[in-house]
Write a structure and sequence with these properties.
The structure is a single chain. By secondary structure, this protein is of the alpha/beta class. The protein has 6 helices and 16 strands. It has one domain: 4-Layer Sandwich (Nitrilase/N-carbamoyl-D-aminoacid amidohydrolase), CATH 3.60.110. 22% of the residues lie in helices and 31% in strands. The mean pLDDT is 96.
Length: 262
């Protein structure tokens, strides 16, 4: 497909209340006015950015996983966002990419935010993932990953970039909002890729404030949409022909430095 419709949902999050958050996000999903291909929710959208991993972890194929599977099937759109998963006695901040056909992919957050002791309570993922839907390729990441450009590098395989769109789901505090805005644009420009960042709003129980700023950036660094500090449901159509034409004219990815450079 040449055009791909991405919908972001920026919202406050009920602190450590899975039931309330699932109900709230389901209501917002059904408010999407036009058919869409992908719905992106924030990081830890069922709890907020809590370190209470034992109390709020879920197993795969349980409540939130089934909720995503059902809504994806009903809406015909991929639904993605992260929540806490327990697997083999380990805890992960895990993004699920759930497709309407019931197939799914997951990505475990690689860079754990040590200022909140996330590295103590969770296990870091070690594998980047590429999700493919309707002939588009997506590379999903989580919050703090945004600060590490080598991890999200759009490397060349057979002289072609490995993805068309970056996704960052986040709980990114307002105190570092300029970094959020700047790095989303930088990741789009340096990787010749669309970039979608979905943040939350509100204030959590730890006193951290979030002003949103969810955004969609094109491969040139242009802002296609930038949310304010408010609940927001926004859809934007991405165009692959435009992306391909720009990459053919400026194939910067062919000259990218190797990950092995010291």
């Amino acid at each position: 497909m040449n055009n791909f419709n991405v919908t972001i949902i920026q919202s406050d999050i009920y602190w450590e209340n899975i039931t309330a958050n699932l109900a709230a996000f389901e209501e917002k999903i059904w408010k999407i006015k036009t058919p869409t291909d992908l719905i992106v929710l924030p990081e830890m959208f069922t709890t907020g950015f809590t370190m209470n991993n034992v109390d709020f972890a879920e197993s795969m194929n349980m409540t939130t996983f089934k909720w995503m599977k059902q809504l994806s099937n009903q809406t015909g759109a991929v639904i993605t966002g992260s929540f806490i998963i327990k697997e083999n006695q380990k805890y992960f901040n895990r993004l699920i990419w759930m497709q309407p056909d019931g197939k799914y992919l997951f990505y475990d957050k690689k860079h754990l935010y040590r200022n909140s002791d996330e590295h103590i309570y969770f296990v870091a993922g070690q594998e980047k993932k590429i999700a493919i839907w309707k002939d588009w390729k997506f590379s999903p990441f989580i919050c703090y990953d945004l600060r590490f450009p080598m991890w999200s590098r759009n490397i060349s395989q057979n002289n072609e970039p490995i993805y068309d769109c970056l996704i960052y789901v986040a709980n990114w505090p307002s105190a570092r909002h300029i970094a959020w805005e700047t790095l989303l644009r930088a990741r789009a420009i340096e990787n010749l890729s669309y970039c979608v960042g979905v943040n939350r709003i509100g204030k959590d129980e730890k006193g951290l404030e979030y002003i949103g700023g969810s955004a969609m950036i094109d491969y040139k660094g242009n802002t296609l949409f930038d949310a304010k500090n408010e609940n927001c449901i926004q859809s934007i159509i991405l165009n692959k022909d435009d992306l391909s034409e720009f990459r053919q004219k400026f194939p910067f990815y062919l000259d990218a430095d190797s990950d092995m450079i010291q």
